[in-house]
Amino acid sequence: MIQPGDAIPDLPIALSDGLPARLSDYAGRWLVMYFYPKDHTPGCTTEAQDFRDLASGFEARGAAILGVSRDPVKSHQGFITKHRLPFPLVSDADEALCRAFDVIREKNLYGRRFMGIERSTFLIDPQQRVAEAWRKVKVPGHAQVVLDALTARPA
Fold first, then answer.
1. Which CATH number is associated with domain 12-151?
2. 43 vs 151: CA distance, rounded Å
3. pLDDT tens sequence across 124-147
4. Does the reported pTM lie above 0.90?
């Protein structure tokens, strides 16, 4: 399990704009990476909107934001357009990123058990190390907590 202080793996990522990228492309700046279960669902929409509404505060601190789910790029493109998200989303269809950050958990919905993403956020420093990790995230106020944690760190 990735913990604060750990280096992040340099994995390829599939961004919503369709361009290939790697996590190392974000080296040299802060990165907020939040994992969420599914596009177009109430909690995930609220979380994305909260990060959207605070995006200028993250940008002012030199931080990029990436939202990560198992949804395909096409779904992410619609989600970004519908909610005017100013940051890319990552399609982790093969769960490589989710597994590297250990966010896949057994979930229970109406008595049905399945494997899904546990809502989690990681604040990654410019040296590509985890500065802070939040697991089992509750959406209300969470984006502000992350921004506050970033703001409390030296620039």
1. 3.40.30.10
2. 25
3. 999 999 999 999 999 999 999 999
4. yes
